[in-house]
Structures are given as structure tokens and as C-alpha cells.
Prior knowledge:
Helix content is 30%, strand content 25%. The chain is of the alpha+beta class. The model has no long low-confidence stretch (mean pLDDT 95).
Amino acid sequence: MTAVLPGSTLGVVGGGQLGRMFVHAAQRMGYLTAVLDPDADSPAGRVSHHHIHTDYADVDGLARLAGLADAITTEFENVPAASLEHLAVARPVRPGATAVSIAQDRVREKSHFVGCGVDCAPYAVIESAEQVALVPPNLLPGILKTARLGYDGKGQQRVDSREELAAAWHRAGQVPCVLEKLLPLDFECSVIVARGHDGQIVHFPPQRNLHRGGILAVTEVHANNIPESAARLSIESAVAIAEGLQYVGVLCVEFFVLADGSLVVNEMAPRPHNSGHWTLDACDVSQFELQVRTLAGLPLNPPRQHSPALMLNLLGDLWFPEDEPKAIQPRWADVLALPGAHLHLYGKAEARRGRKMGHLTITGDDIEAIRSTADFAAALLGLPIPLSE
Ligand code: ATP
Ligand code: MG
């Protein structure tokens, strides 16, 4: 394959914050960009040279994207695989429709993990009332997850008994689901790899992640953030999962580290990931630049982290403190007075609770100093403190 060089146009299906940061990275390197997203006011569409606002399955919109862009990627995994297949007839599409469709479906995703020799949480597929009745008791208590279209903890229900499982599956609309055993988590981590069309593979250091209410809240990356053996195994597992898919692009694999120290894969995202946003400010090459390079068929270099980092997600809740009658403007100027504070806001017109509005990365000399700066920032913004709980 010949490289798609700067001056060409790169396309992305999806116009959220991930698309926006992809567009920024592509434009910095001299590319033009085209975004397909139905929202006329999407974060990526607002900063892109071209913005096609049609549905992701609109044949005319897809044809316009393929007409404008020399290579096309996606920024979220719920783009219909058929749309990617359609685009792939005309243009290179990375990652390909097959990898994306596996990541879209927890049942196929788990089979892929097992096939790569990577352990996942014990689970059962739930597609019928018989399967509910036959669920092995050792999977309870568990979490019922819809096989498709879940994100940020949506589509998940904790169940303690077979009766609760039956009711939860009913509430889920009896769509295909997986029941996963509820595991005793010590902590969570993720690894981002980038794989080129020639099979070259590079990765970022494992990220330690804290979720609140099913949504990523804090990511920390520094020496010894994760025990050595878990770090090594998580990287090896992410590489095996990418290679098993013949993947081309940026892939994030999320893991659980259990109380006994063992590592279990949770899920993968066929795109840059929220837990990799720190790479924009603390690495010489960000996850979005690697997305551009893998899409364009350019060489990859192993990224180098030049500073420890802590990232705080900024949700719409910050605009709605408890005792304020109407939405406030968070204290950005005060936050930006803190050393090593890097503010990223996604340009979303309206703040809503639970909506990802931006993130704040703190860099510095050592993690203790960074944590105390992050505590200050959290206090200014009304985020829960301490950050580690
Ligand atoms: P996203 O796509 O935003 O990462 P999601 O909706 O796909 O989220 P999961 O990653 O499956 O959801 O789960 C969200 C969080 O719920 C996990 O990060 C973890 O904190 C918790 N969780 C999920 N499954 C289990 C489990 N089997 N045992 C214990 N905790 C779990
Ligand atoms: Mg997840």
C-alpha cells in the first residue's frame, strides 16, 4: 500500500470528542479532514474542513465521504459494520469492518479473547429463557450486559439471583446479553496499542483507571502505577488481541486486576480511548497521532512518555453543583493557574449530567506533586476528593 501523505484528506465516521482530537492531530500534520456525523453541531464537525451531516448508514452521505477522503477511520464502535464495508469498496478503511464488528458484540469479543488465550471474566451468553434457567450458580452475583450498544456502564444491571437475572433480562428487552460473574476488582487498567498495515506494533504504558458510576473518572500513568507482572501481561495480551484480528489502527484493551493479582480482560475499543487522553500532553506521540499514522500507512515509532500524568474526566455534572439553581461556568481560570494543568474542552454546546465535556491532564516531575495539584483542581471544580476513591 502507498502512504496517504499530508495534503490528502482523511475521513472519520463519528463526530464526537474522539473524532475532534483525531481531526486536530490530522490537521497538525497537514491533512485536510472530513467528518460524517448526523449532528450539525458535533465536536469534530465544528473543527473539520468538511462536515457531512447524515446518518451513519446513509448511502448518499457515505458516498460523499468516500468522494472526499483518501482513507477513512471511525471514532466509535457503534458505526454499522455495513457502512464500513460499503466505504471499504472505494477507500482504505482502518480498522476494518470485521474487527469493528467483533468489538461491537460482547459475545464475539469474548470468543476472540478466549481464542487469543487471554482470560476474561467467567460468563454465559443469554439469548433465551432456557439459558436464563441454565445459568450456572457460580456466575451469581453477576452483571448482565447487553451484547451490543453498551457504553459508560449503560445497558448493565447487577443481578444477585436467578429471579433478578430473569427480571433484568426482561427489562433489557430480551435482547442478546452476557451475564458476567461479578469479580472482586483490586483495580482496573488499560493498554493502547497501534498496529500498522505492515504488522508493526507499538504501545503506550499501561494506564491505571478509576471508574465512578460506570464512567471513567481518573487515569494515572507513572512508574509503578501497576505491579510489574500485571503490566507485562496486559501489554502481551493487548498485542495478542490486536494480532489475532490482523488489526490496523489504534486499539484499547481494558483489564481488571483482581484481588489475588490475576489479570482478566474486560473489553476492547477499536479506536483511541478516553484512558489514553493523557498521551496528548505527556508523550512525544499521542494516541491520535498514531491513529493518523496507522490510517495513512505512515511509519510508527514507539511512543515515549516524557512526564508522569494524571487525567481527570470533566463531566457535565461540574456545571450543576448541588445548591446552585442554574448552570454555572466551572472555574477554568483558577484551574489553569495550577502548574502542569492542560485543559481540553470538547466544544459541546450544552452541559448535561454524565456527559463527557472535557478532560484535564496534570503533568509534572513526580506523581506525588501531580496528585496534590490534581486534588487542588478537583476541589476547584467540585469533583469528589480524594481522587483515588
Ligand atoms: P465503556 O465502554 O465506557 O468502558 P461499558 O459500558 O462497556 O463501558 P464495562 O467496561 O463492561 O462497560 O463495565 C463498566 C465498569 O463496570 C467497569 O469498568 C468495571 O468498573 C465495572 N464492571 C464491569 N464488569 C464487571 C465485573 N464482571 N466485575 C466487577 N466489575 C465490573
Ligand atoms: Mg469499559
